[in-house]
Design brief:
Number of helices: 21
GO biological process, one term: ribosome biogenesis
Family: Belongs to the CBF/MAK21 family.
InterPro entries: CCAAT-binding_factor, Noc4
Protein name: CCAAT-binding factor domain-containing protein
GO cellular component, one term: Noc4p-Nop14p complex
Radius of gyration: 35 Å
Number of strands: 0
Distance between the termini: 92 Å
């Protein structure tokens, strides 16, 4: 074998050894040499490729297959003894050596370990070690389960490994049987954060339906009998969700869980009512978790016609000055616009939102102030009775404003008796775009709503660039327009400069 000081030659030597083993009809000494080199830890990737070459060829040539005839004992011939040894060595190398690489600290070794494990699994699916006649054995479930156990580690973050595994999920058989195996791997008690994140990352990659392009990784003679049963994958998803929803979550895992819920799970749940308490509890966590929970609640209200108590009070409480310095403010504006889109909401409730937004507009960055002005305009268009906030004749000012900003219940904030004096103030804003956005209160209201979604990604730089472009064509070189090439009368330049 190659020495550690010559790593460049190791790959070629191992490949030659693997070829020699196959041509020698399975010389145990050669395979033991390769395994011994594997244990040395020198060039593990080349060792994995050598083992893959050996075992896929052994499976393809049926050199480990022992035919079993009913009611007839298997003969203990030298050939069968050798096949048993090959099979035992194969199973041992797969479970201990190859799958062990999935726990290696080296990302390169881990990824190659997964690739080798899946390629061997696919080959065994096409050329089983025993005669198989049922669909259950179409994919070697024991090996697939062992791979998933390694990926769902509670000690290592396996995001890169799971991302690699998504390449195999493009095959319908691997996707389907991953769903079938996963419920048995779901921790029933409270796992640690590493396991939860690995589990949720994997769950996010799984789709309920078969792939658009039908492909089978373990395709063989039985491939025509394989059926992707969507009712089974949905049933597995519901079993899984019933467990993971009740795990003890950190803010990070709860955030990932809600993302998976919104993007993958919610539409397939058999009993969405069970989410009620979970979403309401998540709404109290704060930050991006609350926003994701809010989106889930909106879907439940819209799709399942559920009624959530105090949901508008919770939404109202989210509008604090700190919101403008977070990454999720755009989502809050978007969801709030959806929640307040109904024209059947009480006017004093909507007035509270309009007033709170107007007050926050005095503190908000320019890009957010423009969104708020348009948002308030939309609320007034939906509820014409709120025009009283624009034309309040009681002379409400900042010092006499009856609106109670500190009140947590929007219905008790007394906003309906106030006015939007904040928007009058914003008409004098230093940013022309902000001042123009606030002028809608003194102009006839449009017949259609403002499109807030087009403004959600705007930044202060975008606003500045637009203003610069407006004035870039009006560059003033002097305050008096010249009428000829001669200097104007009274020109002071000639007093200090002499022109030849």
């Amino acid at each position: 074998m190659a020495h550690p000081e010559k790593p460049v030659k190791i790959s070629k030597i191992l490949r030659a050894k693997a070829q020699e083993f196959l041509e020698s009809h399975g010389n145990p000494d050669i395979l033991n040499q390769i395994i011994k080199h594997f244990d040395s830890g020198v060039d593990t990737v080349s060792c994995l490729l050598a083992l893959e070459m050996i075992f896929t060829n052994l499976l393809r040539d049926r050199r480990m297959f022992i035919e079993i005839i009913p009611l007839k004992p298997v003969e203990n011939t030298p050939e069968n003894q050798h096949k048993r040894w090959l099979k035992e060595t194969y199973e041992g190398c797969y479970s201990m050596k190859i799958l062990g690489c999935l726990e290696n600290d080296s990302p390169r070794i881990k990824l190659q370990g997964l690739s080798t494990a899946m390629n061997i699994l696919a080959c065994e699916g096409r050329y089983p070690l025993e005669a198989k006649g049922t669909l259950e054995n179409y994919v070697p479930l024991g090996k697939l389960k062992a791979i998933l156990i390694k990926m769902l580690s509670n000690k290592q973050n396996n995001t890169n490994l799971i991302n690699k595994y998504t390449e195999y999920l493009l095959y319908d058989d691997i996707l389907f049987f991953t769903w079938k195996v996963l419920p048995s791997l779901t921790a029933k008690s409270n796992p640690n954060e590493i396991y939860i994140m690995n589990y949720l990352v994997l769950l996010e990659k799984l789709q309920i339906y078969p792939n658009t392009e039908t492909k089978y990784m373990c395709g063989g003679e039985n491939v025509s009998f394989f059926t992707f049963e969507e009712n089974i994958t949905k049933r597995c998803l519901n079993k899984i969700w019933h467990c993971i929803m009740y795990w003890i979550h950190t803010p990070e895992t709860l955030r990932q869980l809600l993302i998976v819920l919104l993007e993958k799970v919610l539409v397939h749940l058999e009993k969405p009512l069970l989410l009620t308490d979970f979403l309401m509890d998540s709404l109290d966590v704060g930050g991006p978790v609350s926003l994701l929970a809010l989106q889930g609640i909106f879907t439940m209200i819209q799709v399942h016609n559920l009624d959530y108590p105090n949901i508008f009070a919770k939404l109202y409480s989210m509008f604090e000055p700190e919101i403008f310095h977070t990454k999720y403010k755009a989502r809050l504006f978007y969801l709030s616009d959806l929640f307040l889109s109904s024209t059947h909401l009480p006017e004093n409730l909507v007035a509270a939102f309009a007033k709170r937004l107007a007050r926050l507009a005095l503190l908000a960055p320019s890009e957010d102030t423009i969104i708020i002005c348009n948002f308030i305009g939309n609320l007034i268009l939906r509820h014409p009775g709120l025009k009283c906030l624009l034309h309040n004749e009681s002379g409400v000012t900042a010092s006499t404003d009856p609106y109670i900003m500190e009140e947590r219940d929007p219905l008790k904030s007394n906003a309906i008796n106030s006015s939007l004096w904040e928007l009058h103030t914003l008409q004098n804003h230093v940013q022309p775009a902000v001042a123009n956005a606030a002028k809608f209160i003194t102009l006839p209201l449009p017949s259609v709503e403002w499109d807030i979604s087009s403004l959600l990604e705007n930044t202060g730089d975008d606003i500045f660039d637009k203003e610069v472009k407006k004035f870039s064509k009006l560059i003033v070189l002097q305050f008096e327009q010249p009428k000829g090439l001669s200097l104007n009368r009274g020109e002071k330049v000639s007093m200090y400069w002499e022109f030849d």
